[in-house]
Every structure is written in structure tokens, then in C-alpha cells.
Amino acid sequence: MREICIPLANFGEDEIAEVTLTVGHRKINYSFRIESFPWDLEGTQLKEYDDDSCHASIEQIMNLRKALATYEKSWELVQIFTPCKGATHIQVLYRKRN
Amino acid sequence: MNNNGFMLKTNELIKVFRTEEVETTALNKVNLEVKDGEFVAIMGPSGCGKSTLLNIIGLLDNPTSGEFFFNGIEVSKFKEKQRTNLRKSNIGFVFQSFNLIDELTVYENVELPLLYMNVPSTERKKKVEVVLERMNISHRKKHFPQQLSGGQQQRVAIARAVVANPKLILADEPTGNLDSANGEEVMGLLTELNNEGTTIIIVTHSPSDAEKTHRIVQLFDGHIVTENQKKIL
Known about the structure:
The complex is a heterodimer of chains A (98) and B (233). Chain A has 98 residues and is an alpha+beta fold. Chain A has one domain (16-96). Chain A has one helix and four strands. In chain A, strands 1-2-4-3 form a four-stranded antiparallel beta sheet. In chain A, a hairpin with a 2-residue loop joins strand 1 and strand 2. By secondary structure, chain B is α/β, with parallel strands linked by helices. Helix content of chain B is 33%, strand content 28%. A six-stranded mixed beta sheet of chain B has the order 7-8-9-4-10-11, sandwiched between helices. In chain B, strands 1, 2, 3, 5 and 6 form a five-stranded antiparallel beta sheet that branches. In chain B, helix 3 packs across helix 4 and helix 4 crosses helix 5 (150-162). The two termini of chain B are 22 Å apart. The mean pLDDT of chain B is 93.
């Protein structure tokens, strides 16, 4: 066994989950955060290209890149989750750096 | 060939898969540079283009457009035969499902890349023995893959990948089918090879495996969205 999955009920978009893992006599503290970045194109210049999926996709990626690049450096990116179709936000899992 | 310190470099790499009805852009203007001796992890959700990128880097496939420099040579328009020649002497592959040939023994599986390279018999024997010893699997050299545990099979796969002394090792989810201890051992072996100078690129879903590399490249929807440099080479 290499990983443990922990279901988190009602986990808020900007909440921090702190996990303490005890292995034998060793305690390890982790802090995780799920961040939500805008994924719709509301308010962007490319709103008019809504029917153009290629332009829209590139705009979404540019926005995501910008959000990831300017995020707090004390947090380390772990995983980007695939948004559902029509989702307004994309969720990203971060872990606090030690 | 002068590669300016870069084992590989891609410039605006695009890969489009077309069927009669659908066109899928698997890679969209990917710019990636990997230095000699670097250990890089490629991460991202399923379907984001990780394996497509690894296949192009591994000279198993050509991009639709863009440039790809391998060791200083522009190879994006190479024909299959040119790619094969370059690949067999420079690149070793490790796969999640090991991809060993069930009908061949451990020894024969490891010997195979050297046969393709027409290495003389005595030299072949010596190289295979050395690498099996190193991977701590020589006591199983007469066994067939199905007689081995997952961890042992992956050690054989790594032996096969490194026996020809490649400059680059590409590993697609190398610990994906292994338990914790064997996964750690495989990552340990890859780290050891990297410490000796082999450039390594792994595709992984495991944050703990990625943690052991120098740099994590996050792919999303065929784009590189972020690169996290962890260790200075």
C-alpha cells in the first residue's frame, strides 16, 4: 500500500485540510488545500468566441497558467483536477511546503 | 553533435489525432527542454497528453508539427527507420505493465536490445550478466516473467532498459502496478541511474514518486501549465 485516500465531506473551496499521519512512532503533519480558479470565460475579452472551442480552450489554459504562476509559493501544486463539462471553476490540490 | 547541454528540446510541438469524425489535439504547442543528466516527472490528469508526449520524446511517434531536437539533432520529420536507429542506441523504456516477452526467459528478455544492436555474443553475455547482477535478479535468469513477482518483473524491465547503456530512460508509470516497497525500490534504482548521469523522464500520477525528481512538469489539456524546479543541477 502506497497511498491513503480520505473522503472529505463538504470541503470548502478555500478551506485547508490538515492531516496528521502516524506511522509506527513517527508523526507526519500535512496541510492540503483545494483551490478553485475561474474556468469560465465570463468577463474576458474572448467571451465573444464562446462558439469557438479552440480559442476558448486556449484562453482557459492561459488563465490557469497565470493563476498557477502567481499562487502563494509556500504551497506546492500536487494535482490539477479535470473540470466537468460547463464547470465555472477548475480545482487544484496544493500541499503546504515544509 | 553539440546539443548545448540539452538532451532534448521541443519547440511548439503539436500532435493531432484524426479519425473520420473527430479531431483531437493531444499536444498543443508544447515547449519543453530537458538537460543532460536531469530527472523530470511529467504529471497531469488522464488524457492530458502525457503518454503522447513520452511517445514523441521516445521516437515512437512523430509530431504533427513543431520541432523536436534530440541530442542536438532535429528529428521531428525522421522516417520510421531513422527513428528506430536513433532510439535503439540512445533510449531505454520502462512501462507500467513491464512489457516483458512471456515466451523468453529473464536472461533472453534482457539480451534482446543487444541482439537488435548486433552486439557480439561474448560482449552480450558479459553485459547481461553485469546488469542482472546489478538489478539483483541474476538468481532468476532462467525463469520466465510469469514466474516472477511484479517487483521482480519491473527490475527485469529496468535491466532490459539499461543494458545497452542508453543516454535517456523513459518510464511510463513505472511504479503504477507495484506495492509500496517495490515501488520505492524501482524509484531508488532510477535515482541511482540518474546519479550516474542517465537522463530520466517519468510519467507518473504519484506525487511521492514525482517528489524524488529534479523537476515536475504539469500537463493539462495538451498544454504545459506549470514547471516546478525542485533541485538545482
